Amino acid sequence: MMGLLVQMSEFIGIIKVAHTANCAMLTTMLENKDLMTQIKMANYDLMLTDPAIPGGVILAHHLQLPMVYNVRWMSFGEGHFSIAPSPISYVPVPGSGLTDRMGLLERTRNLLHYGLNLIQEHWLVIPMYSSLLLNYFPPGADLLAMQRSAELWLVHVDFVFEFPRPSMPNLVYIGGFQCRPANPLPDELEEFMQSSGDHGVVVMSLGTLIAGLPREVMEAIATAFARMPQKVVWRFIGERPSSLGNNTLLLKWIPQNDLLGHPKTRAFVAHGGTDGLYEAIYHGVPVLGLPLLFDQLDNIVRLQARGVARMQEAATYNYLRQIIALLLWYSFFLSFFAFNSLLPFLELL
């Protein structure tokens, strides 16, 4: 319970910092008469914006431009809750970690999360923009009404990933639009991949927002990797773990899509960011998720519900068992030989 309260406190702090900076940016722009005149004289046709931080929304209304959203998140949370019917009896609220299969206790928990999200939106986010709207818009200007007035919503989900839910005619689903066939790897990286033999390669990345985990967690992960027969490509920034095995290659940057599409790749250890998970889906790679913040828990829950992912708390050290179990699942469907080659490793756990 204390851990949840700490996470909520940190999240609220992040929200306050982001929206405070956004208000300051908007105030600076709207006070700059020359800049606003220049933008108006450019005769833009529309505003393409992400409404999670409503700078583009407010600017579009000030310039009287129609809006197209590139959207996953709004001030409430997930974008559907702001525009489409969202029965919380089977539509999980962001942050709940629930699936669409809910009993009485799960629905009660979902209701509590719905209430928390409403409080976040109406008591935290919306009031931060009150003075801005009062100073630069006619009386009665309503941020929620502004947010809901977009002509078209390009929603960053696809129902290969998302749970079933009601939609609206002006919602277009573009989840995974960035996915593409893999390109050839650089020669040195290709040589490393081929050196894995029949065991294959595990790819690990925690994305661009997280530089690293606590030292003891990194050491535990490195130890688990060192005991595996697979090779490992790990996007890693920081001090090299002392327990790192010879089978693990540390890189500050990886061509993630190209690695996930490589025939030698067997699993993806990831934080659960949306783009990375869609790339894993596209290339058919199972995922071991280490959700850390924002939407990552809910993303991993969606893949786990479909049987193509496992979840591991970053604060616990059971990485080897989880990775081997994931690899066994993958190997069972792809290669009976690879399945048998991993069985002896379960005796080490």
TrEMBL record:
The name this protein goes by in its record: UDP-glucuronosyltransferase
Transmembrane residue ranges: 319-339
InterPro entries listed in its UniProt record: UDP-glycosyltransferase, UDP_glucos_trans, UDP_glycos_trans_CS
Species for this entry: Sinocyclocheilus anshuiensis
CDD domains the UniProt entry points to: GT1_Gtf-like
Similarity-based family: Belongs to the UDP-glycosyltransferase family.
Gene Ontology MF terms in the entry: glucuronosyltransferase activity
Domain of life: Eukaryota
Catalytic reaction(s) noted: glucuronate acceptor + UDP-alpha-D-glucuronate = acceptor beta-D-glucuronoside + UDP + H(+)
EC number annotated for this UniProt entry: 2.4.1.17
Lineage per the UniProt record: Eukaryota, Metazoa, Chordata, Craniata, Vertebrata
Catalytic class of the enzyme: transferase
